[in-house]
Amino acid sequence: MSDVSPTLQELGARMVQGTPQAAALGLRLVSAAPGVASMAVPYRADLVGDPDTGVLAGGVITSLLDHACGLAVSSLAFASGASGGMATLDLRIDYMRPAEPGREVIALARCYKITQSIGFVRASAFEDDEDNPVATAQAAFALGRAPAPA
Amino acid sequence: MTDPREERLTTLLASVPYMRFLGMKAELAGDEMTAILPFSPHLVGNVTLPALHGGVLGAFLEMTALCQLAVREPLRRQPRTIDVTIEYLRPGRALTTYARADVRKVGRRIANVHVEAWQEARASPVAALRGHFMLSLAE
């Protein structure tokens, strides 16, 4: 079995399959737990950013990290029973090194603080070793409120 | 004769697979470039609104910076992104998105670039990016 808990399985699946951009990139849910999410993007020729080196585009890593961060935040909001959408406020990405051509890239995101209105997340992207990241990210998300009854 | 800047821009847009994946284009007026991202269903991140994926907006801004750097001067290799900070100001709606980049400083090896994206009105940006890029200048 995978290490995706059943309550979050649906949320994770929805984030991956129900999001057109995630589906277009071929994102794969690796794991989801309250406050922690992991997703992977496959290596594909049409996602290459530098044809001379065959390295995946930075933008692919940006979308992967943004998406994993979003799931980390919403999994925590989900666990606490909150509803409503959410929006990225800002996202800072440091690119340590080019991703290895031919290999999928995994993002691991941790929402380390959530308030009534904001979720704070850190994430990293790597091929197989979290301690040797391709990129690290820091993001803040604004949490939506369920609309008040009319 | 073709403007060498135009030629570098056209070559870049045609040769980078990910720029084609996004479907981005660009127009050049002298040294002023406007990057264009036509709306496409595969760019959506939130189907309910619907809104463009935050990663797509960030990626478009970063690609715009790379295009502007290519327009600015001949480069031996594509610049490597060192870091980017993306600010999300408004939801990116199911509309064409435009972006312009401002190369704030180019040092010996590192460029600082600011990029802003908008949809219906330039005065109401949807997202902005500040980033550093490592350059490999042509000899």
Task: Give an overview of the whole structure.
The complex is a heterodimer of chains A (150) and B (139). Chain A has 150 residues and is of the alpha+beta class. Chain A contains three helices and eight strands. Chain A has helices at 6-17, 20-25, 58-79, and strands at residues 28-33, 36-41, 48-50, 55-56, 86-95, 105-114, 118-126, 135-143. In chain A, the strands form two sheets. Chain A has a six-stranded antiparallel beta sheet. Chain A has a two-stranded antiparallel sheet with strand order 3-4. Helices cover 27% and strands 45% of the residues of chain B. Chain B is built from three helices and eight strands, in the order ααββββαββββ. In chain B, a hairpin with a 2-residue loop joins β1 (25-29) and β2. Chain B is globular, with a radius of gyration of 15 Å. The two termini of chain B are 23 Å apart. The relative contact order of chain B is 0.20. The mean pLDDT of chain B is 94.
Features:
heterodimer; A: 150 residues; alpha+beta; Thiol Ester Dehydrase, Chain A; two-stranded antiparallel ribbon; 3 helices; 8 strands; 27% helix; B: 139 residues; six-stranded antiparallel sheet; two-stranded antiparallel sheet; globular
Compact description:
The complex is a heterodimer of chains A (150) and B (139). Chain A is α+β, with helices and mostly antiparallel strands.
Give me the CATH fold name of chain A: Thiol Ester Dehydrase, Chain A
Element-level helix/strand string of chain A:
HHEEEEHEEEE
What is the arithmetic mean of pLDDT of chain A? Answer: 89
Looking across the biggest beta sheet of chain A, what order are the strands in? 1-2-6-7-8-5
Sheet bearing the most strands of chain B, described?
6 strands, antiparallel
The 3D shape of chain B can be described as globular
How much beta of chain A, percentage-wise? 35-45%
- Superfamily at the CATH H level of chain B? Hotdog Thioesterase
